[in-house]
Amino acid sequence: MFAFILGTTISGFIIEDSVLKLGSRYSFALLIESSLLIAAVPLMKQTNMYGYYLASCACGLQNAMATTYSGSVVRTTHLSGMFTDLGIALGHLLRGKQFNTRRVRLSLVVITGFISGGITGTLLYDKYSYNTLYLPAAFTGIVAVVYHIVSDRYNAKKN
Q1: In whole angstroms, how far apart are CA 63 and each of 5, 52, 70, 73, 126?
Q2: DSSP3 helix / strand / coil % (the chain, rounded to 5)
Q3: What's the Rg (C-alpha) of the chain?
Q4: pLDDT of 6-47, one tens digit each?
């Protein structure tokens, strides 16, 4: 839990704002996340607990960053909020009340992503063990670089 909270703290320190503002802060946070995952792999292979702490820190950083980016609408490391939103919507539907269709769709997309990611991760782990973490680490690193380039161009046009 401490490692997860450390990740959220790092995100809060880097991102600062509670609303989306395009800029290099997100790409820097993504690069840190990617680095944490890369560093976790060799430690996990040695069954060193610090590898798990680094991965947990990356999860906290990702969760806080996505929360900031989405204005608290999406949490990327847990599903309970998505199922809560679905349950509330179903309750409203049963009472004949209106519900937020966009929120329900978002919840279904996130839940589907979790399930498919869990299945894919399990299959890849069975084949590649801890090396599987290199895949999300690489993806996160690539997104960081692309995001940095896009936000720089956006800010250059804006100014």
Answers
A1: 10, 16, 10, 11, 26
A2: 80, 0, 20
A3: 18
A4: 999 999 899 876 555 666 788 999 999 999 999 999 999 999
pLDDT in tens, 98-148: 888 888 888 898 889 889 999 999 999 999 999 999 999 999 999 999 999
Sole residue written with tokens 């590898």: 51
Residue 15's Cβ-count burial label (10 Å; 0-12, 13-18, 19+) is buried
Q: Are 24 and 16 a contacting pair, CB within 8 Å?
A: no
- How many Å apart are CA 54 and CA 33, to the nearest integer? 9
**pTM for the full model?**
0.79
Domain ranges of the chain: 2-158
Q: Which value, to the nearest 10 degrees, does the dihedral of the CA atoms of residues 112, 114, 117, 119 take?
A: -80
CB 60 within 8 A of CB 53: no
Using alpha carbons, select from 101, 63, 57 the residue that is nearest to residue 81: 63
